[in-house]
Amino acid sequence: MGKEWVLERDGEVLEVLPAWFFKVKLKDVDTLVRCKKSWRMSQSNISIITWDRVKLEINQYDMWQWRIIFRYNDYKK
User: Which of 8, 45, 65, 69 is least crowded, fewest Cβ atoms below 10 Å from its Cβ?
Assistant: First the structure.
C-alpha cells in the first residue's frame, strides 16, 4: 500500500535546533514549523544546514510533526 494522504510543501531551513530538529519556513504560506529528518535521510547521512531548501511532508495521523524528505541541490559548479 502506498501513501494515502500526504501533504508535501517546500521550505527553507532557518535554524538547527537540538535533538536533530529544524525550524523551517514554508515557502507558500510563510509559516514556521518544527520538523525532523526522515529515517531514510538519517541512514544516508545527508546533512542539512541553515538556508538549505527542503521538501517537507506531513501525514493525516500526526498533524504537528513534519518530516524533511528531500534536500534540494542548489549549488552551482
Answer: 45
- Look at residue 64 and tell me if it is in a domain: yes
Distance from C-alpha of 30 to C-alpha of 26, rounded to nearest angstrom: 5
- 77-43-55 Cα angle (round to 5): 55
Q: What CATH number is given to the structural domain containing 52?
A: 2.40.50.140
Domain enclosing residue 67, as ranges:
6-71
Whether pTM exceeds 0.85: no
77: in domain: no
Residues of the chain with pLDDT under 50: 1
- Owner of C-alpha cell 524533511: 68
24-30-31-37 Cα dihedral, nearest 10 degrees: -20
